[in-house]
Amino acid sequence: MDLQVGFKKALEEENLVHGVLKKLHIYQTNNNYQDYVQEAMIIFAQAYVDYVDQEQDLEKFNVYIYQKLSWRLTDMLRKEQRFFNVHSLEVFDFERVKEELSDLFLDDIDLSCLNEFEQKLFFDLFIDEIPIKFLTKKYGCTARNLRYHRDSIRQKMSKLLS
User: Fold this and answer.
1) How many CB atoms lie within 10 A of CB 69?
2) Phi-psi group of 56: left, alpha or beta (phi > 0 → left; psi -120 to 50 → alpha; rest → beta)
3) Which of 72, 87, 102 is the last residue of a domain?
4) Overall pTM surpassing 0.70 (yes/no)
5) Does 58 share its domain with 7?
6) What is the mean pLDDT of residues 82-94?
7) Residue 141, Cβ neighbours under 10 Å: how many?
8) Do 79 and 10 sit in the same domain of this protein?
9) CA gap 81, 75 in Å, rounded
């Protein structure tokens, strides 16, 4: 069977393709949205031709192709994510710069305006960037209390730095 028949069927079932993309949280705001639509159409057309050649029940094709598109597009997303993780500049370069800047920044700041608890909290929240959720266990107090101290630290530091 000719691949053009598969593409005609893909154009007829374009809503199914967009439904799969929506299920995978690939929205039109994604920069690669049209690329994913084109890939899905190609996968759809090829799968349709193969499905018809195998003389299987065409009533079950939509279920089959929905799952096949979900799997293949998920594989593409994973591949893209792995590529991004390997070739990302953020992880490699900026972590070192962040540490160097934080060391230089902390040398110039006088933390004597903060009490001992606030100094520990300052380092955990702002330097180590530990979420409040985890710090509640570490300090044995409520998230509300930690947010109160965080805001107090922010006020003191803004006065100090202004």
Assistant:
1) 24
2) beta
3) 87
4) no
5) yes
6) 62
7) 14
8) yes
9) 10
SS (H, E, C) 93-117: HHHHHHHHHHHHHHHCCCHHHCCHH
Domain that holds residue 56: 3-87
Cα 76 to chain centroid, rounded: 15
pLDDT tens for each residue of 61-79: 889 999 999 999 999 999 9
d(CA 20, CA 15): 9
Query: Closest Cα to residue 21, out of 72, 62, 58?
Result: 72
Q: What is the total residue count of the chain?
A: 162
Query: Which of 37, 58, 87 is the last residue in one of the domains?
Result: 87
User: Which among 40, 38, 33, 48 has a CA at the least distance from the CA of 1?
Assistant: 48
Looking at the fold, whether 113 and 129 belong to one and the same domain comes out as yes
